[in-house]
């Protein structure tokens, strides 16, 4: 095992069979060794810095019906909401005062937010907070739409590919969604000039080790600036309600693999990781992650942005989350910084 890990560190990539072996035969010793190397690589580039991104969940309306997601269109129990421009700017104001220099606007695929409206919002954020980066995470849109939003000032875009395997993709999504289009969106975003993030859920229903290796190969082709991975967590109102949650241990293992593959990449320790393990996000940082995304959404809507069950921090004010996250990071010897944290 040690030999494969050393090769991964040196060459930043492996043969398919080697990746499969590494994942299948992993054990605690192997993880300890790999995560210690991941920390070294991370610290060479980023020192002890951890970047924070303020997450603003601005709509839970969605036109899609992804089988795993709690805000899918057909979930009649979801209580829907939209934030208007004023609400969003208020979240940014609070966030800015707390030291955030990146705002992530995330939502379901909600075309109530036309290009015009989204552009207006992005422009106003940039006008008020010129030293901040704006990240969009609003799903699949046309090339023209992405281009317009970029020209209005959006800097980054998060669009997890979810799974790079065609067969697996079909088991997680209805037939009107296509992996091909999702991948094309990612390449379009990159071409337009965004800093781009892809990613996948760990332990989503029917996922195999081969699927994960396909994800690693796809990520290596795309060469994104950011990679978001987190464990799948079941949601009671979806058809995957009875599926087991993804593994925290495998998620941490894969964070270390990704850090060894891409030493400069921005890699969040996700809320899903923190939901399945009370110290999940700290463990994520120690496995090689360097980003954390505290919630800036108004408390009144937090429970409604329910992608999965038992999501953490749904009752806390932004200021409380901010203090909590800073303390957690400090405790493990890392430091939250007030920087944009560009790639
Ligand atoms: N509409 C946007 C944002 C989707 S929500 C888009 O299409 O990109 C953000 C991410 O949450 C998704 O990409 C998915 O990977 C993750 N997610 C959704 N449901 C989940 C679940 N049940 N468990 C864990 N992660 C989930």
What does this structure look like?
By secondary structure, the chain is α/β, with parallel strands linked by helices. The protein has a single domain (2-337), classed as TIM Barrel (Alpha-Beta Barrel), CATH 3.20.20. 45% of the residues lie in helices and 13% in strands. The protein is built from 14 helices and 9 strands. The protein has helices at residues 2-11, 16-24, 28-46, 85-97, 115-128, 143-151, 166-172, 179-192, 209-222, 248-261, 271-276, 280-286, 299-302, 318-331, and strands at 49-52, 54-59, 102-107, 133-137, 156-158, 195-202, 226-231, 291-292, 335-337. The strands form 2 sheets. It has a 6-stranded parallel β-sheet. Helix 4 packs parallel to helix 5 (115-128) and helix 6 packs parallel to helix 8. The longest helix is centred in the N-terminal third of the chain and has 19 residues, at 28-46. The radius of gyration is 19 Å and the shape is globular. The two termini are 31 Å apart. The relative contact order is 0.17. The model has no long low-confidence stretch (mean pLDDT 98). Residues 68-69, 106, 108-109, 137-139, 159-160, 162, 201, 230, 232-233, 235, 272, 307-308 line the site of S-adenosyl-L-homocysteine.
